[in-house]
Amino acid sequence: MSEPRVRRAEIANEQVHVDRVYARLATLREQAEAMRAKGYEIGHGAQREAVFEQASMLFERDMMVHHANQTLQTLDAEYEGLVFGRLDHHGSETVYVGRLGIRDAEFNNLVTDWRAPAAAPFYQATAEDPMAVVRRRVIRCSGQTVLDVDDDVLMPEAVPDDMRVVGEGALMAALGRARGDRMRDIVATIQKEQDEIIRAPWRGVTEITGGPGTGKTAVALHRAAYLLYRYRRQLGGAGVLVIGPSGVFTNYISRVLPSMGETNVELRALGQLLDGIEATRHDPAPLAAIKGSLRMRKVLAKALRDTPPDAPTEMRISYRGEVLKLTAKELERVRRRVHSQAGPPNKSRVRAAETLLAALADKAQEYAEADGRGFDRAELITELGERIDFHRFLVVWWPVLYPAQVLRWLGDERRLTRAARSVLSAEEITLLARSVAQAPAGWSVADIALLDELRVLLGPPPKRRRRSTLELDAEQARDSRTTGARQRPEHYDEYSHIVVDEAQDLSPMQWRMVGRRGRYASWTVVGDPVQSSWPDPPEAQQARDQAFGARTARRRYTLRTNYRNSAEIFELAQRVVAGHAEPDELPRAVRETGLVPQLRTVEPATRETAVQAAAKEMLEAVEGTVGVVCAMGRVEQTQQWLTAQADERLRVVGSLDAKGLEYDAVVLLEPTELIEESLTGRRVLYVALTRATQQLVILSSRDGWLPSAAHGNADPAPTR
Ligand SMILES: Nc1ncnc2c1ncn2[C@@H]1O[C@H](COP(=O)(O)OP(=O)(O)OP(=O)(O)O)[C@@H](O)[C@H]1O
């Protein structure tokens, strides 16, 4: 038979099995529906029963309904390619691999879940160590239709006469495919070195490093799905949290876990880690560096001890015909005493009341001694402590404090100086105070870590008065949108596993915030130091180690193959960081396209038309998405330039928001501006240059950003 005929015959064969699987899925669905209906019936019947019977029936009902709902949820997930693999073992056993395990009515396996041990050879078998697999087949489906098959023969000597082998390179086919709005799962083509990380033990800290496009994000997400499958009892209750750099990124990866039937994972961006606030704004680099530094911890701790701006500066209270007065200085002394003895201010109201009463008693005693009168201290404390005017004073003098309110205090430069004098330089104080005082609406991403720090330093507001953990003001409340994530207003620290993506960019203050959420958790931490935009790596490393606490089990893995970029694009990108990275920190790109990146010289006056032309050209050249990447300060303008090109495949994205994303084609505008805008300039440019899978066009009005080519490497094609 000719190759196309063999292929067609094999596709038809697999279609028969896939049809059986979907038929079985439909039956299982019907059974789950019936079980749910039966569960509800039990509930109705129970109303007329004795109380203890009713209780046990209701329990049974809840269990049945819960179980049925869970089954339905699993069966209803959008399974693109429910069955995607097949293993033919030596000795003729066949195992189909898919996104979930399904058995037929006789309990025979129709599909084995990809996470089950029996499916492991699908990812781990190699020609050197075939694990008794003769043929590994990747089955590509669209919905319920088999489109193609692709085989790897691992034991050529054991191929039986009737076994047909078709195609080559399921991985290359997957890598060459057009990119869409959302990241796809890679269950069908996970590579051996990736699989080893996905299936690594769950305890302790698993650190994954690797250059751009090496599949770190994909691996981390598949690992989350795998861990929940294998260790649901240990990890499922408190939940798994995946933290990404931005909302654009969490949105981009949001389909991966549901496509594997996993809906119990919270995805949050660093700007979304506090409920009710969604921060997307990035501060300019020097300001972000101040806000992210551990020095801010001291500044905040001191700032919240200062007198609140609206607090009264004098106390007068009458006691038995006499007015007792505490001056501003005396009140300050009392405040200092409370802070030095007590814990978080919101838990110290009682201590504040006691200390204030003691100061009033001292004052009364002073008056009495001056007049030669007797004085009963205990009586005064009891009497004043019950007086309404004393409590009225107390609530304004020692108010409940909220993080947002205290952070805003820092907009007053004099107040900030008091808190930061010995910690920040005068220039830093001015910069920070101005930024808080003149901040545009809403918090910045870096502010979220400061608010979270204050949340802990201040302590929870008394329950009776609590509006939210943060006391959103009206403006924020309007701004805030739900993140789609499960709300956990109080128990931020209960997660059982935390995945941190783009970990190289977390500031020390962000590590503290993230660490708080994982006090009892195991971790998967993913990053690439070469892509880092944080200027002080040792400080971040220290905070990172503290976040992991005493967890000593640490596993480190490095991925070395860049699956995203064409070899031509990556060759250019790595030149940009040549002097800033060790050679073994740079991965190897495996796919050649023959398309060299294009470098176009533009003038400031022709930028607009050049961007429009390049975007149009790239939209025509590729089937999937086109990203126009520029400096953060140029995003709005670039968006305006491209409004006329209303194509849903086109996106404008600022350099810092481009982290972790990818497009079929990238138009990179003014590389020098990306370098200048950040404190780790070249690394940010490297990130931007490594976003494209197929084509890259660079528009630049200035030279100097690209070191000359190593011998034998081509410069990008210069065009006008
Ligand atoms: N085994 C694989 N099979 C198919 N595609 C893969 C595989 N591994 C990675 N990819 C693809 O390569 C691309 C890059 O993967 P991913 O975004 O996870 O890389 P990354 O290391 O996180 O990159 P960056 O550091 O730039 O964010 C994605 O499109 C991903 O689907």
Automatic annotation (TrEMBL):
Region called Disordered, residue ranges: 467-489
Keywords assigned by UniProt, alphabetized: ATP-binding, Helicase, Hydrolase, Nucleotide-binding
Hydrolase found in the keyword field: yes
GO BP term, pick one: recombinational repair
Superkingdom of origin: Bacteria
Segments forming domain UvrD-like helicase ATP-binding: 189-566
Protein name: UvrD-like helicase ATP-binding domain-containing protein
